[in-house]
C-alpha cells in the first residue's frame, strides 16, 4: 500500500535491525496486494471499499503465523478499527508510534503534517499528535495540491521526481514560514520523495518509526 512503500518498510526493518549475519534478522511475511483500492479515493469520493482486500491480505498473514501486523500506508489506518476487530493479532499503529516519537525527539516544537488529503480529512494524525501534546500545522490548499501531485502523479506513477523538486521546496518553505519546526512524512510515499531529492528537513519518517516499533516488539535491537 503501495508497492514501493511496502518495499521501503521492509528495507528499513532489515537495515535498522542490529544483526551480525542473515540469521540474526526477523522473519518477515509480506503480502504486497496491489488490488487494494485507493484509500483516499474511498474516504473522500466514495470509491471502492479497501477493507475486503485488506482482510484478504490479513488472512494470508495470519496463515503464515505473523505475531504482529503492519500497514505501510498512513491513510489506511482510518480502517484500522474495522480490521483489528477481525483478528487477535495486534496491529502496530503508525500514527500513535509517530506521535509518541514526535514528543520524545522534538519537545516543544511544532510539527508540519505532510499527508494525503484523505489522511488529513480523517483527523487521525491531528488526534494522535494532540493526545501526545504535540503542536502541529497542516498544509494550506495550494501546498496540499502540490503534495498530492508528488504522491500520486510522480511516485505512484513511477515517474522522475527531480524535474519537480521545486514543488517540494515550496511546500517546505511555506510551512516553515508559518511556524513549522520539522516535518512528518505522513504518507509512505513521502520518505521516498525526501530521500530521493536529498532535501533539508528536519524530517520524521513514520515508516522508519513503524519499522523501529516492529523490531522492538519482536524482541530485537535497533541499530543505532
Give the secondary structure arrangement, pairings included.
Layout: H1 3-16, H2 39-45, H3 51-64, H4 80-84, H5 94-105, E1 110-114, H6 117-122, H7 124-131, E2 135-137, H8 141-155, H9 165-177, E3 182-185, H10 190-197, E4 203-204, H11 206-217
Parallel strand pairs: 1-2, 1-3, 3-4
Helix pairs in contact: 1-11, 5-7, 5-11, 8-9
Helix content: 40-55%
Decide which structural class fits the backbone: alpha/beta
Number of helices: 11
CATH architecture of the largest domain: 3-Layer(aba) Sandwich
Q: What average pLDDT do the residues reach?
A: 94
The unreliable regions are none
- Tell me the strand order in the biggest sheet: 2-1-3-4
Percent strand: 5-15%
Give keywords.
224 residues; Rossmann fold; 2 domains; 11 helices; 6% strand
Notes on the structure:
- The protein is an alpha/beta fold and about 220 residues long.
- It folds into two domains: about 5-95 and about 210-215, Rossmann fold; about 95-205, Rossmann fold, CATH 3.40.50.1860.
- Helix content is about 50%, strand content about 5%.
- It contains eleven helices and four strands.
- Strands 2-1-3-4 form a four-stranded parallel β-sheet, with helices on both faces.
- Helix 10 (about 190-195) links the parallel strand 3 and strand 4.
- The longest helix has 15 residues, at about 140-155.
- The protein is globular and about 50 Å long.
Amino acid at each position: 500500500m503501495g508497492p514501493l512503500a511496502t518495499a521501503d518498510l521492509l528495507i528499513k526493518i532489515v537495515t535498522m535491525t542490529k544483526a551480525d549475519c542473515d540469521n540474526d534478522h526477523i522473519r518477515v511475511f509480506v503480502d504486497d496486494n496491489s488490488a487494494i483500492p485507493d484509500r483516499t479515493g474511498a474516504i473522500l469520493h466514495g470509491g471502492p471499499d479497501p477493507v475486503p482486500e485488506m482482510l484478504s491480505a490479513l488472512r494470508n498473514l495470519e496463515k503464515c503465523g505473523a505475531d504482529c501486523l503492519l500497514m505501510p500506508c498512513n491513510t489506511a489506518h482510518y480502517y484500522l478499527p474495522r480490521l483489528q476487530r477481525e483478528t487477535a493479532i495486534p496491529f502496530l499503529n503508525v500514527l500513535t508510534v509517530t506521535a509518541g516519537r514526535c514528543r520524545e525527539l522534538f519537545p516543544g516544537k511544532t510539527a508540519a503534517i505532510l499527508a494525503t488529503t484523505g489522511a488529513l480529512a480523517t483527523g487521525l494524525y491531528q488526534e494522535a499528535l494532540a493526545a501526545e501534546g504535540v503542536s502541529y500545522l497542516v498544509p494550506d490548499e495550494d501546498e496540499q495540491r502540490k503534495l498530492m501531485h508528488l504522491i500520486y502523479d510522480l511516485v505512484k506513477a513511477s515517474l522522475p521526481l527531480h524535474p519537480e523538486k521545486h514543488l517540494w521546496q515550496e511546500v517546505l518553505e511555506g510551512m516553515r514560514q508559518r511556524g513549522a519546526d520539522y516535518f512528518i512524512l505522513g504518507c509512505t510515499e513521502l520518505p521516498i520523495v525526501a530521500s530521493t531529492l536529498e532535501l533539508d528537513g528536519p524530517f520524521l519518517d513514520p515508516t522508519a518509526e513503524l519499522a523501529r516499533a516492529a523490531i522492538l516488539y519482536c524482541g530485537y535491537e535497533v541499530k543505532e
